[in-house]
Amino acid sequence: MARALRWLAPFLLVAGVSAILLTPVCGALHRCGCRSLWAGGESHCNARVAGGEHCPWCEHRALGALAAALIVGGQLGVYWIGRRRFGPAAAAAAALVALAPLGVGVGALLWLPTDYPHFLATGARSSLSLPDGPIRCVGGPPHTH
C-alpha cells in the first residue's frame, strides 16, 4: 500500500493541478471567456449568454467531461511511462507539461464535430474552410450549470 501511494501521490498532485487549470485551458482553446477558478471560472463563459456561440465544453457537459478524461488519461500515460525511467518527480513534471499539447490535441479532436467557430483563434473554422459539425453549439438558451 505504501509503495503504491509513493508512486501514485505525485500523479494525484498533477491531476489536481490539471483539474484546476482545465477551465482556463477551455477559455484559451475556445475563446469563450472561461477563466481561472479564482477569476470567476465558467461564470464568464459565452455559454451563459442567450443565443450566439456557446463553448463546446460548457454547452455539452459530456464533451467537457470527455476532454478532461482524455487529457488527464494522457497525462497518466506520460507519468506511467516516465516514472520507472526517470523517477516519479520527473515523470510528474513531464505529465504536467503534457497538459498543453494534450489540451490542444484533445481540444481539436472534440472541436471538429461541433459547429463552434473558434479554436485557438477567433473564426478558426471559417479561416480553415471547415464545415460545421453535427454537434450544435451556436444559438440556444443560456446555460447556468
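The record above closes out task 2.4. Task 2.5 opens with a second protein, given below.
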Amino acid sequence: MLSVGEAVYDGCFDTPKTEAGVRQIPVSNAALKLVADWKARTKQTEPEALVFSTWSGKPISPNNVLRQQVFRACDALGLKRATWLTFRRTYSSWAHEKGVPGKVVAQLMGHAKVDTTLNVYTQVIDGALRAAVDKLGSELITIVHNPKAGVELRACQEIRPCTSDQ
C-alpha cells in the first residue's frame, strides 16, 4: 500500500488539498518491483527519502520533469506533448474503459466527489461509443424474424440473449 499523507507544492511539504487526498492506495506487484529496482540504484536510501528527488534529496519540480523528460520523449516519438493533466485523464479514462467503477477511480485519484473524476478527467475513448451501442443492442433487444408476421422487436426481460420463444 502507498500511503498519501503529504503533498509537495512549490517545493514545500503540506497536507493534500482535500481530505480525500489523504489515502491508502494499493500498488501492483509490478509497480512495487519497479520502485524496489529504482531504490536499489539510488544514493538516497534513508527510510524517509523521497523515491524521486533531486541529487540533493529535495522534491523534484513537476514542471522540470515535464521539460527535461516528458516533453523530450514526446518530441522524440513525434507525439503531442503530454502534461500531468494528460496522464490523469488517461488513467481515469482507461480505468473507466476497463470497467473500474467511477467511485473506485475517484478514491484512487484522491477526489472527494466522483463527479470530478467523471466530468473533468474521464474522456470517451475512441471506439467506446460503438462498443457501448453494440453491447447494449445485443443484450437488450433482439430482432426476431417471423416469416408470417414479418419482423418484430422483442425486448428481453433479463440481460441475456433472447430466444424466439420468449
